[in-house]
Amino acid sequence: MAAAYTRLSDALLWSLGYSHERTYEAGDKAQICTPLAGTTSLSCREATLGAPKRSDSELAFAEIRWIAIPGKLAISPRVQFDFEESEWAVRVPVYLARNKAGAFTAGIAVGYTSKDDEAGASVFIGKEFSFLE
């Protein structure tokens, strides 16, 4: 569930919003061993025990999508705060390359999350820049 206020012009979109997200993660894995009939050997395998762990997030976010230099550069920074975990994150994709149709589809992204106090960078290809997803 999400709600956002968005403003759009020719080369700029800005958005403020709130979302409730529910995710599920597999439980801890354990090694399960069973005896092999007629021997003193065991057959072991790793399996997840128990139900998946449910996690709810209450997120506030702000995002800008901007074609900074038409035909050459677009950016889409996003900042969000998770009220459940008191954590925040920022990600700044910079679109540098376009496909044959002229749409921005590749670039670099830098980001930071307070959860693990980690920063990182990545190269991405394929996600087309759009004002509306």
Structure report:
The protein is mainly beta and 133 residues long. Helices cover 0% and strands 68% of the residues. The strands form two sheets. Strands 1, 2, 5, 6, 7, 8, 9 and 10 form an eight-stranded antiparallel sheet that branches. A two-stranded antiparallel ribbon has the order 3-4. It is elongated and about 75 Å long. The chain starts with a strand and ends in an 8-residue tail after the last strand.
Gap between N and C termini: 15 Å
Query: Would you count the extended β strands for me?
Result: 10
Please state the structural category.
mainly beta
Structural shape: elongated
Q: Can you tell me the residue ranges where pLDDT is under 50 for at least 5 consecutive residues?
A: none
Q: Please state the average pLDDT score.
A: 90
In helices, the fraction of residues equals under 10%
Helix and strand run? EEEEEEEEEE
How many distinct folded domains?
Answer: 1
Number of helices: 0
Radius of gyration: 22 Å
Main sheet makeup: 8 strands, antiparallel
Share in β-strands? over 45%
How would you concisely characterize the structure shown here?
The protein has strands at 2-8, 12-25, 29-35, 42-48, 53-69, 73-75, 78-82, 87-98, 104-113, 118-125.
